[in-house]
Amino acid sequence: MQKKSLSSSRRNFLGLSGALMVSASPLGMLFGCTQKEPLLRVASHVWPGYELIYLAREQQYFLTDAIRLIEVPSATACLQSLAAGTVEGAMLTLDEVLTARSEGLDLKVVCVLDVSLGADVLMTQASITQLSDLKGKRIGVEKSAVGAVMLDAALHKAQLTMADIETVYLTFNRHEEAFLNKEVDALVTFEPVKSQLNKEGANLLFDSSEIPGRIIDVLAVLPSVIQQSPKAIKQLIASHFKARDYFVKNPAAASVILAKRLQLTPAEVPASFIGVELPDLKQNQKMLMGENPPLVASARDLANIMHKANLIQEPVSTDGLFDASLL
User: Fold this and answer.
1) Domain residues for 298?
2) pTM for the whole thing?
3) Are residues 108 and 140 in the same domain?
């Protein structure tokens, strides 16, 4: 079996409880006997579920001398930066975290940022109006766990198998171009391509709302950072929840800020979050806390799917994967 390299990822394009912000006092960090924590650097690429942390930065919800957001073009770049030690954390899909762990990068999930409930989709050319029409057709998809999960579920619903289609592996930066040039008949993709293809008349025949809880985005950090920079991690997580609350209560104002990074107009921003559930603090606690957190079972199932799809050589251990101590 071929081992999946870190170059495969779901999002390679550029890539609601308002918790009080938990932060270390700037004076306490700079003066007195308390030693200042190391700078917490967190990498990410553009995806609606990650953007609330950038909204928090613009709203000055966290201290930029304690936390620095590093913008990179892809999840691959996030993982490479973590492996090189140039960042201490990253925003990733759960399957990307599992891939990293399978390759020796021991990441820990400290917060769930979003759950896909329709944001990941299978879209088809206008001439294809039902899933059964996919037989014999070319379907573009990223070579990733999310792509494998979505394609498998869509084919199962259509009562088709992988042998019934032609799989065309595409990195996310090629999704829109390949579809518009009709290099593929159908495409497994997500925002912002979903909205862009919708404008071009593409049909949406399947989405992740039909497989709830299978596609999750998280904030993951290196284990050493939990000991070295706990205040910064707490501050970042709390700022995410505070920005979430601001977005829910002030969508128009928040959309103006979010539009630039999403490469959408402010009016288009709310639609990009359709199908993206943004768990609040209480939901995070429910998913991550307790003797048998619900996400542990989801992670095990995902690891098994990845193994069967030859995305990882062996089912990766989920022991110690989640740490809710900083929520």
Assistant:
1) 26-117+214-308
2) 0.79
3) no
